[in-house]
Automatic annotation (TrEMBL):
It comes from Scleropages formosus (Asian bonytongue). It holds the Pfam family Sarcoglycan_2_C. The lineage of its organism: Eukaryota, Metazoa, Chordata, Craniata, Vertebrata. It is found in: Cell membrane, Sarcolemma; Cell projection, Dendrite; Cytoplasm, Cytoskeleton; Golgi apparatus. The keyword Nucleotide-binding does not apply. InterPro entries: Cadg (IPR006644), Cadherin-like_sf (IPR015919), Sarcoglycan_alpha/epsilon (IPR008908), Sarcoglycan_C (IPR048347), Sarcoglycan_N (IPR048346). The chain crosses the membrane at residues 294-317. Keywords: Cell membrane, Cell projection, Cytoplasm, Cytoskeleton, Glycoprotein, Golgi apparatus, Membrane, Signal, Transmembrane, Transmembrane helix, Ubl conjugation. This is Epsilon-sarcoglycan. The gene is SGCE.
């Protein structure tokens, strides 16, 4: 194995669960990429085989990882499994604050065929490093890779080898790997084998090479602003396997970064003074008299409502003007005129009920043409006399209508 391969294996911790049922201990370094592969082949032995011997066992297995005693993983640790028929991967970059503090990760495997589970514990013991953090850090965006493809040791080793040929550092480590989806990227369309993209951060102990500095030239900055690819002399060393977006490369020299010191907030407006530990009230509470609260809450509003009701009743009943007072305030000539109108109206109504009208034929008795009996009228006699008659009597019809007679000789008589 060449020096690049040895360097990759020293900087990347790739562990696989052993066949034993005991807890597994791993020892990653702070500030260095940690990768742990969950192999499905190991967990297949934990589940019963297929009923027919000789059948290929390809059970769909998914994994759930969480910090012991908590529902999720630590903030620095991520997990990905693309399909139930692929291996799961735990990866991340532990921080220096966790050095010397064992982290226990519970790994639960679910067999989607038999609905059985198997659980193992992974104990992560984070170790400190001498040169942490590395002063020069560069982050690359690789467009033709997914995060699980980049986490493979062979692919990541090839990328670190290409970076070492361009940068020429004495020490080179992979610091972190992040999917483009975690940075707000969109899921690509399922055409032309498009990839999600992945960000890879590496650190070295020597300044950036001239090739990496070319992206900061005004010409390349102008091309990036016009959404054109910049001209990088060392791009051909990556192009064969990795398509790098040079407009998204980030070069950080942490030795020149001014640390931000946060001053302790002084007690004042909006800031409570330090009162020590919180002391809850005693469990034995004293009894309280709620009679005063009752008076304020119910008695006072009821008294106000009663006063308003009395005022309203006095205004509606005691202040009402009767007919006598109205007549006293009305002029005599107006009262006489109004009285004469009422008398005339009553007189007209009484006269209209007593007027004589012709009885309709439907109300007169008729004789049967065979028996000679008198047949009662069709309608009752208790109809209103003020209604108009439906038909006039025969006498009125004869007096109102005369039919001329025609002589046989063709002469007319008056």
């Amino acid at each position: 194995m060449d020096s690049v391969g040895v360097l990759v294996w020293l900087s990347i911790v790739v562990t696989i669960l052993s066949k034993s049922h005991a807890d597994r201990n791993v020892y990653p370094s702070a500030g260095v990429l940690f990768v742990h592969v969950l192999e499905r082949e190991y967990f297949k032995g934990e589940f019963p085989p297929y009923p027919k011997p000789g059948d290929a066992s390809n059970d769909p297995i998914t994994f759930n990882t969480n910090l012991m005693g908590y529902p999720d993983r630590p903030g620095w640790l991520r997990y990905i499994q693309r399909t139930p028929h692929s291996d799961g991967v735990l990866y991340g970059s532990p921080t220096s604050e966790l050095v010397g503090k064992p982290t226990v990760i519970e790994i639960t495997a679910y067999n989607r065929r038999t609905f059985e589970t198997a659980r193992h514990n992974l104990i992560i013991n984070i170790m400190s490093t001498e040169d942490f953090p590395l002063p020069y850090q560069a982050e690359f965006f690789i467009k033709n890779m997914n995060v699980e493809e980049m986490l493979a040791s062979e692919v990541l080793g090839d990328f670190l080898g290409a970076v070492k040929n361009v940068w020429q550092p004495e020490r080179l480590n992979a610091i972190n790997i992040t999917s483009a989806l975690d940075r707000g990227g969109r899921v690509p369309l399922p055409i032309n084998d498009l990839k999600e993209g992945v960000y890879v951060m590496v650190g070295a102990d020597v300044p950036f090479s001239s090739c990496l500095r070319e992206v900061e030239t005004p010409q390349n900055q102008l091309r990036c602003s016009q959404e054109m690819e910049p001209v990088i002399s060392c791009d051909k060393k990556f192009r064969a396997q990795f398509h790098i977006d040079w407009c998204k490369i980030s070069l950080v020299d942490i030795t020149k970064v001014v640390p931000v010191h946060r001053e302790k907030a002084e007690p004042g407006t909006g800031i409570l003074p330090d009162m020590g530990e919180y002391k809850p009230p005693s469990e034995t509470l004293e009894s309280r008299d709620y009679f005063a609260d009752f008076l304020i809450t119910l008695a006072v509003p009821s008294a106000v409502a009663l006063v308003l009701l009395l005022i309203l009743g006095y205004s509606m009943c005691c202040r009402r003007e009767g007919v006598e007072k109205r007549n006293m305030q009305t002029p005599d000539i107006q009262l006489v005129h109004h009285s004469s109108i009422q008398k005339s109206t009553k007189e007209l109504r009484s006269m209209s009920k007593n007027r004589e009208i012709s009885w309709p034929l439907s109300t007169l008795p008729v004789f049967h043409h065979v028996s000679g009996e008198v047949v009662p009228p069709i309608h009752r006699d208790n109809y209103e006399t003020t209604s108009m008659p439906l038909m006039q009597t025969q006498t009125n019809l004869q007096s109102q209508m005369q039919i001329p007679r025609q002589q046989p000789s063709g002469k007319w008589y008056s």
